[in-house]
Specification:
The chain is built from 2 helices and 10 strands; from the N terminus they run αβββββββββαβ. By secondary structure, the protein is an alpha+beta fold. The protein is globular, with a radius of gyration of 18 Å.
Length: about 200
């Protein structure tokens, strides 16, 4: 009995580590958003949308208002996207909901991921690919729930460095859940995701 519990615990830890490492790897690619054109639903005069893609973590975009608000990055051409990184600018911190959507050059919109959870000032939120990368030209981050004005110090969009073996991690997830008879798998993440990109904290 104790041996089985030890095995389950070990498998769960290995699974979480594997998924986190995959997401971290997905976010190590080139920042495609750096210096690109950014537009937003609204912006303070001293904190325009361009400040979210200038590579400076001490400047940023601030909508000057509460949710819903959005910021969109034009990557210049259609490219494979593996990760979206967001440097939080919010006071106070608290529960937030962010939706990331990609748009191709033909206008087709692709849901890339949804973050639901708590966030705090200067925390990085990473939405790393848990499947193959997704080719898009525009990436829009929409905030629908936030206790403070919607703002980001930096928005980064990266392309993949290497192909990731997600199917094996997914199979491990199902195995661990069936053995533990509990869901969801990977309790280390406080976020809920939908679409081809998976949020990791």
């Amino acid at each position: 009995m104790h041996a089985n519990l030890f095995y389950v615990a070990f498998l769960s830890l290995a699974l979480v580590t594997s998924v986190q490492n995959s997401a971290a790897q997905a976010c190590k690619g080139q920042n495609l958003a750096l210096g690109k054109v950014a537009t937003a639903s609204a912006a303070e005069l001293s904190k325009p949308s361009s400040h979210a893609v200038d590579g400076d973590p001490f400047t940023g975009w601030n909508s000057g208002d509460y949710a819903p608000q959005w910021i969109e990055i034009d990557l210049g051409s259609q490219v494979p996207v593996s990760c979206v990184r967001l440097l939080v600018d919010m006071t106070p911190g608290g529960y937030v909901e962010h939706t990331v959507t990609g748009r191709r050059e033909d206008g087709t919109e692709i849901p890339l991921g949804t973050f639901r959870g708590t966030a705090a000032m200067r925390e990085w939120l990473e939405i790393g690919s848990n499947q193959r990368s997704v080719p898009v030209r525009h990436v829009q981050i929409t905030t629908t729930t936030s206790p403070s004005w919607v703002a980001w110090f930096e928005v980064e969009v990266t392309k993949p460095l290497v192909a990731m073996r997600v199917r094996e991690a997914s199979n491990m997830c199902r195995t661990a859940s069936s053995v533990r008879r509990s869901a969801p798998c990977c309790p280390a993440s406080r976020a809920v995701t939908q679409g081809p990109l998976a949020v990791m904290r």
